Amino acid sequence: MLPTLRDQPAAPRHQGLLAASAGHRRTGMSTWARAALDRSEKLLTLCAPIDTDIASRAGSALTALTPEELHTAARPAELLQRARPDRDHGLGILVWADAVISATSRDTHEEIETTLARLCRDHRVSVLCVYDRGGERRRKRDGAGSEHLDLAVGRHLDGLQEQRLALHRTGDSLYVDGEIDMSNLDVFATALRALTDTPSPTVHIDMGGVTFLAAAGVRTLIRDTAPYRDRGADVEIYATPHITRILQLIDIHRLPRLHLICRGVSTNTI
């Protein structure tokens, strides 16, 4: 049986946050920065404002790159190539994706994300990339977390946190925690589509941490795994008894190549 999201290692790596509002963004950035300082990491920020208390606490251990510096740099990703933790400290990198994209471009930000993933893999580096979801006070322009959702979801396999939903991916397995409703169907759908890009003959969707599943979420699950199942691959869904009953009511378990496995019930594939 697959482990749940809460059973996964908690080591911070290349993580993402989909901020629902400016307040949510500020709180997420501040909480993460404090945790990085608690781990004795130095801080590097990319277009990400932090509060004065954190700046004061970090002191000379804080390096801030502004939108203007990124805009004028020939290759912004090259600035990160020189970012290395020293022998005694790790390095925490805090990124505000909306400001980076505005100062440069989506392609440049994607290059930065690739560089960040490499740094996390090869060095003592932890990263939080914050994407605004948009829509606060009915703004005309969506945030990067809506406009570039594929980038936010696809680049943060170590963990992506939305206001009500948390996602984590390892290989051919997607772990889902929280509530799936109309506010985050696009996040869930994008994660499912990214998962079905894997060449594995079977993908696993662990919904053991899901506490609420709207009917539209079930339809999304059916629709966005269909291309994969149509290619002859199997989809295994792990769920609690409560979520299993919801899925059974819509007869999802009767679809070809889709297997529903109820947690807490002895290896019962329906």
Task: Tell me what you see in this structure.
The protein has 270 residues and is of the alpha/beta class. It has 2 domains: 1-163, Rossmann fold; 164-270, STAS domain (Transcription Regulator spoIIAA, 2-Layer Sandwich), CATH 3.30.750.24. The chain has 11 helices and 11 strands. The chain has helices spanning 22-38, 52-58, 67-72, 76-81, 97-103, 106-122, 144-147, 149-154, 185-195, 215-230, 241-249, and strands at residues 14-19, 42-46, 62-65, 91-96, 125-132, 160-161, 165-170, 173-180, 202-213, 234-239, 258-262. An 11-stranded mixed beta sheet has the order 3-2-4-5-1-6-7-8-9-10-11, with helices on both faces. A hairpin with a 3-residue loop joins strand 6 (160-161) and strand 7. Helix 9 (185-195) packs parallel to helix 10. The relative contact order is 0.13. Mean pLDDT is 87; it is low at 1-10, 136-140 and 266-270.
- How do the SSEs run, as a string of H and E? EHEHEHHEHHEHHEEEHEHEHE
CATH topology of the largest domain: Rossmann fold
Number of domains: 2
For the terminal residues, how far apart are their CA atoms? 15 Å
Output the number of helix runs: 11
Cα-atom radius of gyration? 20 Å
CATH architecture of the largest domain: 3-Layer(aba) Sandwich
Secondary-structure-based class equals alpha/beta
In percent, how helical is the residue content?
Answer: 25-40%
> Ranges with pLDDT <50 over ≥5 residues?
1-10, 136-140, 266-270
CATH class of the largest domain: Alpha Beta
* Shape assignment: elongated
Question: How many distinct beta strands?
Answer: 11
Strand order of the largest sheet: 3-2-4-5-1-6-7-8-9-10-11
Strand content: 25-35%
CATH superfamily of the largest domain: P-loop containing nucleotide triphosphate hydrolases
In this structure, how is the largest beta sheet organized? 11 strands, mixed
Q: Mean pLDDT, nearest integer? A: 87
Pfam families: STAS_2 (PF13466)
Organism: Pseudonocardia charpentierae
Domain STAS: 174-270
Region (Disordered): 1-23
